[in-house]
Write a structure and sequence with these properties.
The structure holds two protein chains of two kinds. Chain A is mainly alpha-helical. Chain A has two domains: 64 residues, no CATH class; 213 residues, MetI-like fold (Orthogonal Bundle), CATH 1.10.3720. Helices cover 72% and strands 0% of the residues of chain A. By secondary structure, chain B is an alpha+beta fold. Classes of the chains: A mainly alpha, B alpha+beta. At the A-B interface, helix 9 and helix 10 of A face strand 6 and helix 2 of B. The complex binds adenosine-5'-diphosphate and magnesium ion.
């Protein structure tokens, strides 16, 4: 038999790759373990959670925990879930709009002092939020808007240094001639942004929106400070206060945490590909 | 209608002066080519006419009206870019229609105009496609369509052919010439390729370092270059530039001692140092007895119908000779050259051409 007629076998996997994958699986397992623990605890009762030896699968599966989570008087889970959706969604929209405009200006337009202003904007990144927190808090108090979502959302209408920085990278990749062509076609500057530049960077914009959603969904400090009523809390604060007050009810806490985490997991799975593309291209530039 | 007039136009980027005072008058319906080495300011000048760059000094008039402060879209100009700059997320149809819609044209009229233009350029079957699904040549045609569809008074082309392969470039060049015939519009065409300039232009504007070196018909800039820069830049292979001194009766003495009768303008300049410019096709292989120079072939390019010989003289001077295709000269051969002084150019010490008065 000639060698030409025997099919080539793919190169055998070396011991190295096996070790590599084993190590990666182990690390992934370590990261996933708390998540798994949370999930199974949501379907156990307290005794089962603390039973030794550990049961790795709930038996029986206590679906009633979920029903209870949605119906408790002292834990308005659904209302708080809605608050979180509103909070994260509004911040994401505000960020996408304001940061996109600012980044377009920094990345595509030419004006005096542009790079200086951009430098100052990036400097804002280095300033810890906690430093400006007190004066900002007092300001909102004076306006009588504490206890509402205004202090939590409005600031994002004026941009966010990190997202501006990230989006600018993408806008800089838009060819200048494209905008010039639109200028010659008689489009206004705002329309050029909206109809010509934005469609070139929309993947980046979706990623920025997702970042903003995830960030806001998990944001704890600001809503804790500004909001007072249980019915106004987003889930992050709601879960915390429930857990602080009802320390014994682990399964309800865990069920709440599970449902708080689930939307982010689903969102990530849906947009996974986009995410990886976006991260890769932003780091390459 | 579409005459373009530049008066004392200057442009500075920070402290760097990129356009150093350009006066230029382009007649209606003329096809003018800006040519010059890369970085000399061709694009900048074109973008200033388009309104995409501010004018720091001077003014620009189109069809008699001062447009120096006018927005690009209101100048009646359209531009074709080197990288086409088609809107990637729109179909060819929408690319063409975009400007018309911005001008507030009715839907039916937009449609008619787009289809009429597409038919003219034979791109009708491309209309539903996005730029990504087109070849370079097709994109180029759509880009030209986007310019034509608005029926501008002045077309501006910024090196539109340099991203195309050689065969396509020749084809598109003739298509642009044909369009110029049909539309009778003013066109300004930027290129660094002097073959493009020579074949397309009614008039050529030679630019160098932000200045106009010469304006003239292709034949004028070729046969009567205004200065050493134009002489060296226009024509391929480049003109031979030989240092010479003028002797009694206008006779020229070349650096290697040969004396010969100079062109008419050299009489009465005895003692001056000049530069003699001779096109490669004015040099020919002759028997030794009639030779004005002899040297060794350092490179022989046989192109079929003609041969380009690079000859090195004993004093180090290099000469380029355009000979017929059947010359037998090879690398290392010694050859004897005769000079034909018709169309010879003379340049003074300041680099400017001397003309017979
Ligand atoms: N936006 C700009 N800022 C600073 N310098 C520029 C800018 N645009 C062009 N230049 C400079 O102006 C000169 C002419 O550029 P350009 O008009 O593009 O040349 P060409 O098209 O003839 O190759 C170059 O030296 C270039 O570096
Ligand atoms: Mg250029």
């Amino acid at each position: 038999m000639t060698t030409a007629s025997t099919r080539r076998m793919p190169p055998r996997k070396s011991v190295q790759t096996v070790i590599y994958h084993a190590a990666m699986l182990l690390i992934a397992g370590i990261f996933l373990l708390p998540f798994y623990w949370m999930t199974i605890s949501a379907f156990k009762n307290n005794a089962e959670i603390f039973a030794r030896p550990v049961t790795w699968f709930p038996d029986p599966i206590r679906w009633s925990n979920i029903a209870e989570l949605f119906n408790r008087d002292d834990f308005p889970f659904l209302i708080q879930f809605g608050n979180s959706v509103f909070y994260a969604g509004s911040v994401a929209l505000a960020v996408c709009f304001s940061c996109s405009l600012a980044a377009y200006s920094f990345g595509c337009l030419r004006w005096r002092w542009r790079d200086l202003v951009f430098g100052l904007t990036v400097c804002a990144l280095l300033l810890p939020g906690i430093v400006t927190f007190l004066p900002v808090y007092l300001g909102w108090s004076r306006l009588g808007l504490n206890g509402t979502y205004w202090p939590l959302i409005t600031p994002f209408l004026f941009g966010d240094a990190f997202f501006i920085f990230m989006l600018r990278q993408f806008y800089m990749g838009v060819p200048r001639e494209l905008l010039d062509a639109a200028r010659l076609d008689g489009a206004s500057e705002f329309r050029i942004w909206w109809q010509i530049a934005l469609p070139q960077v929309w993947t980046a914009l979706v990623i920025v929106g997702l970042f903003a959603v995830v960030y806001t969904w998990n944001e704890f400090f600001s809503p804790l400070i500004y909001l007072q009523d249980r019915e106004d809390f987003p889930l992050s604060v709601g879960l915390f206060t429930f857990q602080a007050n009802r320390a014994r009810e682990w399964s309800i806490s865990m069920a709440g945490a599970l449902f708080a985490a689930l939307p982010m997991v689903v969102l990530f799975l849906l947009t996974q590909r986009l995410f990886r593309q976006g991260l890769a291209s932003s780091s390459l530039k | 209608m579409g005459a373009v007039q530049l008066t004392g136009v200057r442009k500075l980027f920070g402290a760097l002066e990129v356009i150093k005072g350009v006066d230029l008058s382009i007649a209606d319906g003329e096809l003018v080519v800006f040519v010059g080495p890369s970085g000399c300011g061709k694009s900048t000048l074109l973008r200033m006419i388009a309104g995409l760059e501010d004018v720091d000094y001077g003014d620009i008039r189109i069809a008699g009206a001062d447009v120096t402060e006018l927005a690009p879209a209101r100048r009646g100009v359209a531009m074709v870019f080197q990288n086409y700059a088609l809107y990637p997320h729109m179909t060819a149809y929408d690319n063409l229609a975009y400007g018309l819609r911005r001008a507030g044209m009715a839907r039916a009229e937009v449609d008619a105009r787009v289809r009429e233009t597409a038919a003219l350029l034979q791109i009708t079957e491309l209309l539903p496609r996005r730029p990504k699904a087109m070849s370079g040549g097709q994109r180029q045609r759509v880009a030209i369509g986007r310019a034509i569809v608005r029926k501008p008074e002045v077309f501006l082309f910024d090196e539109p052919l340099s991203n195309l392969d050689a065969a396509l470039r020749v084809e598109m060049r003739s298509q642009i010439a044909r369009l110029h015939q049909e539309l009778q519009a003013t066109m300004i065409f930027v290129t660094h390729d002097q073959v493009e300039a020579m074949t397309l232009a009614d008039r050529i504007v030679v630019l160098n370092a932000g200045r106009v070196e010469q304006v003239g018909t292709p034949s004028e800039v070729y046969h009567n270059p205004a200065n050493l820069f134009v002489a060296g830049f226009i024509g391929s292979p480049a003109m031979n530039l030989l240092p010479a001194t003028v002797g009694q009766g206008g006779r020229l003495t070349l650096a290697w001692g040969t004396t010969m009768a100079g062109p008419a303008c050299s009489s009465g300049m005895a003692g001056q140092s000049l530069t003699l410019g001779l096109r490669p096709d004015r040099l020919s292989l002759v028997p030794q007895a009639q030779a004005q120079a002899s040297g060794q072939v350092t490179l022989a390019e046989h192109l079929g119908d003609e041969s380009i010989l690079h000859v090195r003289l004993p004093i180090g001077q290099s000469l380029t000779v355009k000979a017929s295709g059947d010359v037998a000269a090879r690398l290392g051969d010694t050859v004897h050259l005769g000079f034909d002084m018709t169309h010879a150019a003379l340049f003074g010490a300041d680099g400017q051409a001397m003309r017979s008065a």
